[in-house]
Structures are given as C-alpha cells and as structure tokens.
C-alpha cells in the first residue's frame, strides 16, 4: 500500500488560488554550528508559496518559545511592510510548530495551520527545497571566504537577500516585486560580494594611525543603511557606511585605502560595533542616510561567485 499519494502539480494548482503573502511554508534546519550556547545553530525559513520570497532567521536553539516568537514577528512584518494578510502556514509536526502558544495566536488571527504527515517531506516540498538551496548557498559562500564558521548566519542573510531581489524564471520578476506589488529597482552597486576583503574607516582622532582597518564583507545590515563587516584583528562585527573594497581603483590605478578613508569619507560617520568579542550578537542602531558620501569617478570591479545562485560568475563594473 502506498503511504503518501500525491497528485502531480497539485500544490501549484492550489497556490494559483492564493495571492502573494497569503500562504507560507516553514521549516527548520540545524544544528549548523558546533552547538555552543552563544552560537546560532538553527535556521528558520519561511517561504511564500506564491512569490518564493524568503524570510530567514538564525537562533541558538529551536525550542517552542523562541520559534513561536519569531513566527509571530514574521507575520507582523509581512502585514506591516507588505500590506499582505497571511491565511495559512504549512508546517511539520514538530513541537516548535504545534505548541499551544502558536496555535492560539494563529487561531485568533484566523490563520489556518496546516500540518504535514509524519515522514512525508513531499507535503511540504517548497520549504524542503529551499532549505536545501540555502544549505548550498551557505556552504558555498563560507567555503570561498576567510571567515570562521560561527559567522554562517551572515551568509544566510546575504543569500536570502540576493534571491529575493533577483528575477526568477517562474515569475519573470523578483520575489520582492511580486510580494510588494511594486516594481523594485535593483541597484547593483548596493551588492557587495560576501567574503570580499575591504577596509573600513578607523574611528579614531589620531591622524597618524592608519585610517583604514582590514575587514571582510558580510552582508547588508537589516537594521541600518550600512553594511556589516568582520574585523579579523579584533574578531568583531561592525556596521558602517565608510568602507572601500580592497580592489578599488581610480583611473586604472589602485588607490591607498588610508588616504581615501581619511580625505573622502566624512569624519562624523556613524560606525556601530554590533557584536560582542566573539562576533555573535547583532545590536546595531540605524544610522543616518544623509551621511552617505559618493566618491566621484571611483571605478570599482565586483566579482560575485555564488555558484548555486548564478550559473556562471557575474562580473559587474560601475562608475559612481
């Protein structure tokens, strides 16, 4: 007797009756770290079944209190930021999804909680598929960088942002455009390659010291206008808008980052240290968008090697 009889393409037919943001599939992957108390080990993924928009978050554990709170925050984020009404959540039968707190919350909001059968991964195929995609993305980004594995969560954020903003074959537009209902303009110069070596401004009043601190690019800071960088010398993560890639050049000549950061980048730039000594906790405060300085005539070459995301290496050159 066949245990799980799925009609081919039945889920896609079901989603055709849904609007973007109404139906979401959820799953958890982990542990991905070394299972240390202060290290994020679990990845919670929510994918919109219509637009394929991804919401990812990382956690030190997957107990029902932690995951339930994150799901509630995600639902509020979807409703407030994209003006969408969540109607159903497709989850497995883990206690993090079937606890009384989450059941009460979705019941009060009129959200249908759809549980999959035991050991039936196909019934939540979209979440399972994107968990596999994120695994490949994280592994590839970390393998091609000089970062410690404890920072894998930034690779997850970087990969999710790229997938949300780039056009998909199925929709012929980006997941962000489909979910928001707006034609989102992509600025390629806002994408920094994950793991690229860079220099950030040294926030010191001593003009005799080097103005550029060696750093490694992580991802866009979700809580500010800046970017997140890892400082190998201090093992900290900071959020800043005062940075320059290590391979930047002007008029064909490679530039001195210390000179550029001291003469071009404003001294009043707000650089936020967003982690503790072991670079594990984000606590960044939003910075001022008016502090952004555009370097005229600066030519920068950006090479992105995200093999699971792109079929070939994407090279972009732009002039600000």
UniProtKB/TrEMBL annotation:
Record's GO cellular component terms: cytoplasm; nucleus
Location relative to the cell: Cytoplasm; Nucleus
Pfam family for this entry, one: rve
Subcellular location, principal: cytoplasm
Single annotated GO MF: RNA binding
Xref: Gene3D superfamilies: Ribonuclease H-like superfamily/Ribonuclease H (3.30.420.10)
Physiological role: Integrase (IN) targets the VLP to the nucleus, where a subparticle preintegration complex (PIC) containing at least integrase and the newly synthesized dsDNA copy of the retrotransposon must transit the nuclear membrane. Once in the nucleus, integrase performs the integration of the dsDNA into the host genome.
Keyword line: Cytoplasm, DNA integration, DNA recombination, DNA-binding, DNA-directed DNA polymerase, Endonuclease, Hydrolase, Magnesium, Metal-binding, Nuclease, Nucleotidyltransferase, Nucleus, RNA-binding, RNA-directed DNA polymerase, Transferase, Transposition
Protein name per Swiss-Prot or TrEMBL: Integrase catalytic domain-containing protein
Chain ranges of the Integrase catalytic domain: 16-192
GO process terms (BP): DNA integration; DNA recombination; transposition
Catalysed reaction, written as an equation: Endonucleolytic cleavage to 5'-phosphomonoester; DNA(n) + a 2'-deoxyribonucleoside 5'-triphosphate = DNA(n+1) + diphosphate
Superkingdom, taxonomy of origin: Eukaryota
